[in-house]
Amino acid sequence: MKKVSIAIAIYNEEENIRPLYEKLTALTQCDWEAVCVDDGSIDKSFQLLAEIAEKDSRIRVIQFRKNYGQTAAMSAAFSHASGEVIIPMDADLQNDPADIPMLLEKINEGYDVVSGWRKNRQDTFLSRRLPSMIANYLISKITKVNLHDYGCSLKAYRSEILKDVRLYGEMHRFIPAYASWHGARVTEVVVRHHARKFGKSKYGIGRTLKVVLDLFTVKFLMDYMTRPMHFFGNLAIFSILVSFLSGVIAIALRLAGISSLIQTPLPLMSAFFFMIGIQFLLMGLVAEVLTRVYFETLDKPVYNIRNKINI
Questions:
Q1: Residue 113 and residue 149 share a domain
Q2: What averages of pLDDT result for each successive group of 10 residues across the chain (311 residues)?
Q3: How far is Cα 156 from Cα 100, in angstroms, rounded to an integer?
Q4: CB atoms within 10 A of CB 291
Q5: Which of 198, 224, 250 is the last residue of a domain?
Q6: What DSSP assignment string belongs to 184-248?
Q7: Are residues 71 and 47 in the same domain?
Q8: Using an 8 Å Cβ cutoff, are 64 and 77 in contact?
């Protein structure tokens, strides 16, 4: 039986702590621990967690000095988890711990990542579900990892998948895409979703905008992490071509007597795009140097191995 670490980020959820613990204790199908990260709560969340942890050693608690956000809390929980399988989930009781055995069944079938899908989501449409649908569509199209619900916290990961993952911004929701990028087998299962009974939601439309911005970072890292010059170089070539074309048209107009160089913005356009092109080339060179420093200083390979035989 695989040991399971349940990673829970908690921020001002005092009314949900004990009901959540009761649901966790009902899990008898696996050997589990819960790594609970109090993300700078200003209510009694930490005190309640500490009381429970004194009586049950399976509950492990980390308290942040201030509120750093869900991604930082998840990162801390992942770092302190000791299980072979790590399952993040929310503390607001909208995720159901009773779905954990179903996720583990998929892990036992050979998958590396099992993502929950809140098919019957119990949230308001305009402020929560519609922005989530748009974000999920964009993420799936850009990352080429088709999941219905990237925002569902309830997922299961083999611990080795998360070993080298470093999370920033709102990046925790992109872990399945990162894992697939490194060759992990990803699947999706429908999970239950309950309406929030206690406390106040910490999510809003502003978070969706942050996710869209983080998506640009994910796309760049997935496609150009080991070859940034290809990205900046293409932009540089395009800018220099626009510069050259603008200059040629300006000279042609002057020779044809249609307009002088000072009567058209084309010379200024030519100079502007040429300078932009040179800057993109220099940015590409700097990015190439930083890439080499990153991989060589940390001794990180540019590949990922699944198995070895006679090696």
A1: yes
A2: 90 93 90 94 93 94 91 90 93 92 94 92 76 82 86 91 72 83 88 80 62 77 84 94 93 84 86 95 92 76 58 62
A3: 8
A4: 17
A5: 224
A6: --EEEEE-------SS-----HHHHHHHHHHHHHHHHHHHHTT-HHHHHHHHHHHHHHHHHHHHH
A7: yes
A8: no
